Amino acid sequence: MEELNDGLKIYSEQVRDVLSDPPLAILRWGNTLLLGFVIILLLLSWFIKYPDIVSTEIVITTTVPPEKLVARTSGKIETLLVDDKGTVQENSPLAIIQNTANYKDVFLLKSIIEDYSQGNKFDFEKLKDAQLGDIESTYALFHAAYIANKLNSDLQPFIMEGKAQRSENLQIRERLSLLLQQKIINESELQLQKNEVDRYETLFNKGVISAQDFDNKKLGYLQAQKSYKNLLNSISQLKSSLIDNNKNSKGIIINGTKEEVNLESSKMQSFYQLKKVIKDWELAYVILCCSPKNVQLFV
Predict the structure, then answer these.
(1) Global pTM?
(2) Buried b (16+ CB within 10 A) or exposed e, 218-238
(3) Mean per-residue pLDDT of the chain
(4) Residue in 236, 235, 254 with CA at minimum distance from that of residue 165
(5) Domain containing 247: what range?
């Protein structure tokens, strides 16, 4: 107490009274309040906890981001075409989903189509025993259309038929020319026979010849007229045949052009349909890499 009084000598008398006689309430309740505050903090720390693991979404960006590949068709992996941690290029096939086609035959067909698109011959011989599965029917249609168009191009049946028509046209013209020449001769003969009949008629009227002789001469003239009319009919038929033949020749040219266009159109249509079916097959059964990457396989 003496030390406290010595320390309070520097203060005023009122201050020394307060410091030397502190309130009993502070001593009584101060520690209690402090203890209660500590207990409250402990209770709050028990009920309010910050989680050890926080779930959230993050976006990781890299120069070459990883790519998750998912098959579009359910099924077993038939063949893996890459090794784990191997490097692949863009649009490289990574795996084949099990299907009815032999993927090697399909890839061969695709390469032949690419060569054909560049103007090369379509090599069907390489695909003689190919197993194309769902592509088989479309390939068969293209094969048939291709062969039909090639046969038409090589054999040119309409051109051969056109040549036959032109040859027949020439023969008809030659026959018509002969008949026209014969017509001129028959007209002269007919005129001579008519003159002779007129003379016989004069002689008959004078009583020089008998009626039978006159009738025979008229009969010969009538037969000559009949032959002349038959000749005119033959000439008319040949002219009609010539007109029909010319019409057929033009029709052959038109039909040949139509057939050529139709066969070429059918071939190209079936060709593009075949390319589409192959693309659909790739989308369904081939897992492709979209960009150059290193492959990581997860089992």
Answers:
(1) 0.60
(2) eeebeebeeebeebeeebeeb
(3) 80
(4) 254
(5) 163-266
